[in-house]
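Here is a complete protein record:
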Amino acid sequence: MRKILFTLAVLASLSIADAFAQEREVAIVAHRGFWNCGEAGAKNSIASIEQAQKNDFWGTEFDVNMTKDGVLLVFHDRKINGRYIENTRAKDLEYYRLSNGESIPTIDEYLEQALKSPETMLVYELKSHTTRKVETKAVKASIKKLKEFGLFDPQRVMFIAFSRHVCNEFARLAPGFTIQYLERDANPDDLIKSGINGIDIRYTVLKHNRKMIERARANGMSINTWTVNKEEDIRKMVELGVDQITTDNPLLVRQVLHQMGVKEKKAR
């Protein structure tokens, strides 16, 4: 009788777990676009966002820096060949080529490509700049550009940043949008008071900080994690209950979700 009861208990727990897995949805965010494929070949390139769109991932993440003359460039690093982007005019960076031969995309060029796939979420990372004044200018320039392209829509764009000031400014100037803070010192109870309604934390931190996840959930916040590229880490993040996984290997995340019986979230 004990064996029968034990077996029934195990089966019941498995059925509950299966039901939970089927209800779960996890979104895949291609880190700097789907660059890790032969068709793209360069991070933050037009080809990389195009491949993210073609492969039907929920979102594509990209990095934005502002030049001395206020031009927004889709580029990760603060410096190019030793020159700070923030202190350099856009035309003085036109010579630079990405690894696939493309020039550095302007935000205009990037958003032009974004318009070709209304379903793909734009995960817009505005990089930290030297002063709050410059960061506020970059936030306002970003919002202006999104409005020009008809993309200033919380169903199309979410914002992430390492700078708390940048996050605060997006919360102030773009209410209703998902705004995720990237730093490991994230305190969900504090962030939510400023209107910052999400976290995007490195997976190595989240693995050992269930309390952060619990507090984020208690505050109704979205939970993203970066940059998760190995199967064991992907599985761990899914088990911890994140909403989005940012990765250089989006096809692997898709495969793992399928193996785990967890639904891959689509944009719309």
